[in-house]
Fold:
Amino acid sequence: MNALRKKGFTPELIIQIIGICFFAYLFFGFMLLPCLNTLTSIFNTTNAAGQRDAFAVIRFFLAGNMKNYVWNSLKLAVMLVITVNVVGISIVLLTEYFDIKGARILRLGYMTTMIYSGVALVTGYMFLYANDGIITKLLTNAFPDLNPNWFSGYNAVLFTMTFACTSNHMLFLRNAIRGIDYNTVEAARNMGASPFKVLWKVVLPTLLPTLFSLTVMTFITGLCAMSAPTLLGYDSINPEIVRLAGSSAADEAFPQARAALLSIILAMFTIILLTVLTAYERKGHYLSVSKTKAKLQKQKITNPAANVITHIYAYILFVIYMTPVVMIIIFSFQTYSAVRMRKLDLSAWTLVNYFGQEDYSYLTSRGTYKIREGAISGVFANEATLGGIKLSFVLSALAAAIACVIVVIACNYIFNKKHKKSGVILEYALLFPWLLPTILICYSYRTYFNSADIWYVGNQNLYYAANVRLLIIMAYTVTKLPFSLRMIRASFYAIDEELEDAAKNLGASGLRTFLQIKLPIILPSVLAVFALNFNSLFTEYDMSATFASTYGTSYAMVIQSMCREEGLYGYNVNASGRRCASTVFIMIVSGIILYLVYGVGSRDLGERRAARERWKKVFGRIRRIPAGTKEAEQKG
Structure:
């Protein structure tokens, strides 16, 4: 060992070499090679004579209806940029900038999309507006000529995603508007500018960098939409890729190559947008403010008519946001017949959609009654639903943890090698998955690893049987690396370099310094990133649909299939009620995680000490009150 140390082979260097080799294995094996295989597969198609025709898929794309899927996705993305920004900016201004009555309640309503999204959110809107939805039934009763299938296709997807995608505005734009210097607003008001002129000339220009980032994020979200187009029947790129991935050459012409081409088209759009965003950010955007920054104060709307209209608009949005949430919670406690008929029965409340099982008796075609045991079951009593919860929980937790561990180790290396090319190369390699749409990564995994000829995974078919779970974990992990890097890297900037220098002066090794000095400082941020990653992966649908198999049925896929199988041959009779209960369960889990991250986790040391002192005072009063006294009776 001493000889190895003299040659420079210290434990730290050995660990560093192992880490570099592992990351190279991860990058080339699970990022680069599968995607290159997808790209080359486009040009490896053969014609009817069995001859290779490199441009067959491209000619098919130009001559057929494949370009319609691209156009539909582009149209949706462009319109979402407009509608989401209008609604998103509105809800932030209504709760943070203007003095609106009941702003706290409005804020809670507007933030509901943060606790349920994807399939859960889309099914919530379908519960209201589908052909058998609550509101649709009310409308058709009032207007008999109304088409009951009005909530489908492009308009339904645009409406649903408009309100689903404003959660980013509530997170990022809200913080940006809170950081505005009130002195600039007050100066403009003193010069005679109206509240709306101040908003247009002073406030909005300072928010442009954030708005530009949100616009790019919204455009990519619309371009890569999966859940809403799939459930609401809109022909866009991602659902078509998943459909083609599950097809064969016997069903249609070279489906795999067509899916690959659509994936590459998505990747091209994503790369162009991220390039534009990076170029825009590099220009720099600075705002001159006063040396003593003042906290923003809410602005009163002095015009009575404008004030009334603004309040009406605010509460209409509140109703749109809250109605699906309220109705899903209420109907999750209703019987299967009330849920399926979409009729609220205040005399019949039940917990069967959550817990327990009941038998179902139905009349057969022969006129006899048949009993199907356990056909009415709750979320935590139904085998398929409980299995989906367990699988999604384990896979999401593992992927979120692995992503955080990889990024923490990588960030430590990047900061230690900040002036060397190796650190820069590692950082850009971790950001590589951001250049590609999620569907391209997952489709590449499905096609590339669906073979027993990949030597670096032990010649194992990772798409076969239970191996698909490992493939899902890898896809989850890789897609979460860029986000984790951006968040955790920011926490490393908060580490005082003097602490690290002091540890080194005391003789501590680099590994010990990292474990005892750096890690405790960044641990709250790492746990927050883990929580956010888990939250998004637990209800994830897009990647799960690409890896669809018996061994890889996630919680979101179980929810999606509930209504399709409802009542078939007397099974899953209360699938709609169980779906409502599943959505409530998702809301509770997501709400707890968000509270721990943005509530308790966002408090600084002073706020935590103050909260601890308040609880001590409360418990101190309780101990000081003797039993049987008048004060104790009043407290009781």
User: Anything to note?
Assistant: DSSP finds 28 helices and two strands in the chain.
